[in-house]
Structure formats: C-alpha cells, structure tokens
Design goal:
Blueprint lengths: L23 H10 L13 H11 L11 E6 L2 H10 L4 H4 L3 E8 L3 H14 L6 H15 L6 H13 L12 H25 L3 E5 L4 H7 L6 E10 L23
Antiparallel strand pairs: 1-2, 2-4, 3-4
C-alpha cells in the first residue's frame, strides 16, 4: 500500500487566492430563509439564473475532486410531466416551474481521475509531486473495489491490520462504501444549488419521495448511477410553506468536547 500520509506536509505552491469580503448578514439571511417550499407560483425561473445556480452547485467540495455527481435539468415538457408523476405527483413537483435530478455516480471516478491527470499535463502551473502521486497511485487503489468486490475485501483486511498501530483511512472498501462516498458529495452539491437558488430570489424543495427506478429509466442512466434527490425550483406561492421551521434543541446535535 502506498503511504497514506502523502499530504501530511503542505506542498510548496505559489498559488495565492485572496477571499473577497463577505456580508455575513446576507449569508445568514440566505440560509435562514431557505425553506422546503411545497407549492410554487406560476412565475418562471429565468434561464440564466437557473444555469448559474447549477454552475454554482458543482463548485461544492467533494472527495479527491472526483466530482461523483450529475445534474439533469429536465426541460423537455413530456419528460417533465413524467418526472412529476414519478415524484408521486406531490405539489412540490407538480407546481414547480423547474425540476432538477441530482445523480450520484460511483462509476465515473476513473474517468474523472484521468481528467485530473490530463489537467496536470496541460497546465503551465507547478504541480506538487505529491499531487501527481496521489492521482497516479492512491486514487486507483482507494476507489477500485475489483470484480465482486474482492479488491475491496483485501483492502479492508489490510487496512484493519494497519489500523491496529496507527490512524488509517478505513473506507471505501466496498461497493456500499462507494455509494455512501458518492451520495455525500452529491448532497453537498445539492445544498449549494438550493442556497444559490435562495440567493437568486427563488425557492426549492429537495424530494426523496419518488420512484427512483422509473426516474433512472426516464433519464436513461446506467445501472450504477443512483438518484440522490430531485430538487424543484421556483418562486414560492403564498401557501408554499406549511408551517414554521421546527428544529429540536441544539444541544442534541451540536457537541463541544
């Protein structure tokens, strides 16, 4: 196994990125006003706004920058009507001007790993040796589970032995781990999308109540592609929110140790 502490020491890079000043009150307002809207008005979502929000969605953080997501903005009227039905005809779908299907991909990491390496070859920027080693050596081992998951099983045993004496990454060592891996990154991108929509003056609703098998067929997705969620988007109707937001006591979820 290659050494997993490959990024223990920060690489020597010349890249500098100065963050812009952020109005924290606007961020707070965006997050606090994001609600799961169940009924939308007839007002349309501007094409350029929807496109920009999707572009902001894929700026979300993700594991190893392998970007295991796809967003299907369903614009064809026939497919959109079918999608509404597959979302169980709930008002959040049937009244929405726009519907976006987020798909988690466990099967695109090899392609995206090659894209990273190709990017390194083409750029005139300095690429740390550690980064090249990571994508050439670590990624193919970390994410490849092998036929019938046999490589994953071998990794699990090996990492368990290594972990007896030192901190050791334990996942992914199975196809189930890969599914969790892909859905985590896809969900982060979904949150980016919903917050972007709110910042642009629109609302959204993430839907898990759906027939994922039929949606997969509608989108002609391969077997290993999984529906993460369907997100509806538009302007909220007056009756779009069913009640005040309910959150339990923060002490149940936020721990200081």
């Amino acid at each position: 196994m290659p050494k997993v502490e490959i990024f223990k020491n920060p690489p020597k890079v010349k890249h500098k990125e100065i963050p812009p000043e952020i109005n924290k009150e606007e961020i707070i307002k965006t997050i606090e006003s994001r609600r799961s809207v169940r009924v939308f008005s007839n007002e349309e979502v501007l094409y350029e706004d929807m496109k920009k929000c999707l572009e902001l969605a894929v700026l979300a953080p993700n594991s190893s920058n392998l970007q295991p997501w796809e967003f299907y903005w369903v614009r064809d009227n026939q497919k959109k009507e079918a999608l509404k039905k597959y979302c169980l005809s709930q008002p959040a779908a049937t009244t929405a001007p726009e519907l976006i299907v987020c798909v988690a991909r466990t099967d695109t990491w090899k392609r995206n790993n090659k894209l990273m390496l190709n990017h390194f070859k083409k750029t005139d920027k300095y690429i740390p040796k550690a980064a090249l080693q990571y994508y050439k050596k670590i990624v193919p081992i970390a994410y490849n589970q092998g036929p019938f998951g046999l490589i994953g099983l071998i990794k699990k045993i090996t990492l368990s032995i290594m972990g007896v004496k030192q901190p050791t990454p334990r996942q992914p060592t199975s196809y189930s781990d890969m599914r969790v891996w892909a859905h985590k990154s896809a969900a982060l991108a979904c949150e980016n999308l919903m917050l972007s929509l709110r910042a642009f003056g629109y609302d959204s609703c993430p839907m898990e109540g759906m027939d994922s098998k039929r949606i997969q067929k509608l989108l002609q997705l391969p077997k290993k592609a999984e529906i993460c969620m369907v997100i509806s988007a538009g302007k909220r109707a007056e009756n779009g929110i069913y009640g005040k937001r309910i959150r339990f006591d923060n002490s149940l979820f936020i721990k200081e140790i």
